[in-house]
Design a protein that fits this description.
The chain is 36% helix and 19% strand. The chain is of the alpha/beta class. The chain has a 6-stranded mixed β-sheet. Helix 3 crosses helix 4. The radius of gyration is 16 Å and the shape is globular.
Length: 188
Amino acid sequence: MRSSLPRRAVLALLVAGPARAQPAPESESAWQALAGGGMALFRHAIAPGGGDPPGMRLGDCSTQRNLSDEGRAQARRIGAAFRERGIAVGAVHASAWCRALETAELAFPGQVQPEPAFDSFFGARQDAEARTAAARRVLLGWDGPGAMFVATHQVNITALTGIFPASGEGVVLRRDGGALLVVGRIRP
């Protein structure tokens, strides 16, 4: 019995945490949730480095860490994966950071709407709670039609779900009353 205590403690943290996790690798259930109007939180595609360079300014991509050629190809594959599966996307939101905006634009050209609730708080941890609450409101308010796609940052996704996604990886959520449930992950 003692050996199951740590497992119970981990499960309790997951249930009490930001979103009730049902960890799974990329799965058909994630795509089915999206087909039914779910939400996909994607970490922006590959942008070499970490954090932001000194002097970074929003609105000036020359001061930011940006997508590599590999990241741009990855972003296009994300959109292609949705189209290949016939997933209708009703909303495309992105953080104001150039790497998130470009990820969303390459995946879903002409559909991107910046959404401050998904802006990074990596360099402003004091904003984490308010930004996460705002993002949760946007997600819980989604009622279609279609799926919601969000290009954001690791810190935001981890705060909302407890999952640390790779660059270009998506975490799929669905609503369950007033809660967000993690359905699965997508790695196009």
